[in-house]
Design goal:
Order of helices and strands: HHEEHHHHHHEEHHEHEEEHHEHEEEHEHE
Helix content: 40-55%
Shape: flat
GO molecular function: peptidyl-prolyl cis-trans isomerase activity
Structural class: alpha+beta
Largest sheet: 4 strands, mixed
Number of strands: 14
Pfam families: Rotamase, SurA_N
Protein name: Peptidylprolyl isomerase
Keywords: Chaperone, Isomerase, Periplasm, Rotamase, Signal
Radius of gyration: 27 Å
Strand order of the largest sheet: 2-1-13-14
InterPro entries: OMP_Chaperone_SurA, PPIase_dom_sf, PPIase_PpiC, SurA_N, Trigger_fact/SurA_dom_sf
């Protein structure tokens, strides 16, 4: 079974997977693009990702769409190889491959689980997959070069928008654009000491052999992502951990239980099970520091001073956010708040936490709030000053109010059309053959295979 199919089967509902696994062991060649083969298991693997993401039932038409995507990739890679100006270095390929395998190991429960599922060592998997990744990167580079050449004019945007009847256009709710400067309250020394004492007592119990780290993690750890798994976090890059945690994890001897140490999340004890380059497999226990009794006065005074400086000396808000905000996701971006799911700056006002809404209600556009308490997106309690950058009342979508949004949608539609025409032209100069299931379904649904001069046999 192809590696992609094997891994995707782990996270797709059985009812959806069944129609693809009945004869997955008997793999077959379903297409040849130039001198490159496409296996049925490759198409099945890509289709399973469609089913998982889109929550759709299996259909032959969807199977052909997956085949089309793989044909496109092979065609793009073939043309990229012919273009001597496109090069993909071994370092780039190896880095991309490492990142993908690390993601997969996290999904399936670590390196040992991945190796057991596929029946190959990690080194063998890398050797098998390296050229697949090189081909994907060649295709993506060639595709992006074409995409960057596609632009749209204002007249094209207006013409695209005019296709939609006015009474069919949606109404958007109140939207806001915000920037803020965040400071966290400092827990009391007594609260810090209490957390360290709890962590120390847990460590002593583990070291003495009275209990295991796994059992103590299930009972006491306050990390919701790992407590139920006995504190286990599979292969993770050191760069993805907060610096305080990474510093301990990078130097502690394998198998040893660390002394309690503090990070922004609380107090930890840690055991590294395996370290391979900058990837570690570990268990940990987190004891949070109670900040419910933290004195907000120092933070409020700090934020008031920052606000006064901005207003008195006309200092740029973005500059002050980069200097003084403690929120890692917004401070370096000048305090700009975005929807973490979409990256959009336009936020639905009613979807914000009530602490934010109460602050926004006091502001006119361009004004900066007084320091106020807030519940941040990660659930942490903090204090901030907020600038209301824009307020867009509820309205029906229109060019005057939503031009940037409409422009992006129109550009995406144009890119889809131009890229499809371009890919069809590229396919004319690459020999493509269909076999087996692909040939049978292409004859049944000829409109689904977009190959203008397809030779089938």
């Amino acid at each position: 079974m192809h590696w992609m199919l094997l891994l995707l089967l782990l996270c797709v509902p059985a009812a959806q997977a069944q129609s693809l696994t009945n004869d997955a062991v008997l793999d077959e060649i379903v297409a040849v693009v130039g001198d490159k083969l496409i296996l049925r298991s490759e198409v099945d693997g890509l289709l399973l990702s469609f089913l998982q993401q889109q929550q759709q039932p299996y259909s032959d038409e969807l199977w052909l769409e997956a085949l089309n995507q793989l044909i496109d990739q092979k065609v793009l890679a073939e043309h990229a190889r012919r273009d001597t100006t496109i090069q993909v270095s071994d370092d780039r390929v190896n880095q991309a491959l490492e990142e993908r395998l690390n993601q997969l190991m996290q999904q399936v429960g670590g390196q040992a689980r991945l190796e057991a599922l596929y029946g190959k060592t990690l080194t063998q998997l890398k050797a098998e997959l390296r050229e697949d990744f090189r081909e994907q990167m060649l295709a993506e580079t060639f595709r992006n070069r074409k995409l960057q050449q596609i632009h749209i004019t204002p007249s094209e945007v207006r013409a695209w928008f005019a296709q939609f009847p006015a009474d069919s256009l949606p109404t958007l709710p109140d939207l806001v654009r915000l920037s803020h400067i965040v400071r966290y309250p400092r827990p009391s020394e007594a609260a810090r000491q209490e957390a360290f004492e709890i962590a120390t007592a847990i460590r002593d119990s583990i070291i003495s052999g009275r209990s295991s780290l796994e059992a103590m993690a299930r009972r006491f750890s306050e990390d919701p992502g790992s407590a139920s798994a006995g504190g286990h976090i599979p292969d993770t890059r050191l760069g993805d951990l907060v610096p305080e945690f990474a510093a301990v994890a990078s130097r502690i001897p394998i198998g040893e239980i660390s002394q309690p140490f503090e990070t922004p999340f609380g107090v930890h004890i840690l055991r590294v099970n395996r370290r391979q380059g900058d990837v570690i497999d570990f268990h940990h226990i987190l004891i949070r520091i109670d900040d419910s009794q933290a004195d907000p006065a120092p933070v409020l005074a700090y934020l008031k001073a920052v606000r006064d400086s901005i207003l008195t000396y006309n200092l740029p808000f973005g500059l002050m956010a980069r200097r003084h905000s403690e929120e890692a996701s917004t401070g370096p971006q000048g305090g700009r708040v975005v929807d973490p799911r979409t990256g959009e700056r336009d936020l639905v006002r009613s979807a914000l936490d009530p602490t934010w809404q109460r602050t926004i209600d006091t502001l006119q556009v361009g004004e900066i709030s007084h320091p106020a308490e807030a519940v941040l997106l990660d659930g942490r309690r903090a204090y901030h000053i907020v600038r209301l950058d824009a307020f867009i009342p509820a309205h029906r979508v229109g060019l005057e109010t939503d031009y940037a949004r409409i422009e992006q949608l129109a550009l995406q539609d144009k890119r889809n059309r131009v890229m499809r025409q371009w890919l069809n032209e590229l396919r004319r100069s690459v020999v493509i053959w269909l076999h087996g299931k692909a040939k049978t379904l292409a004859e049944r649904y000829p409109h689904k295979i977009l190959i203008p001069t397809l030779a089938q046999r």
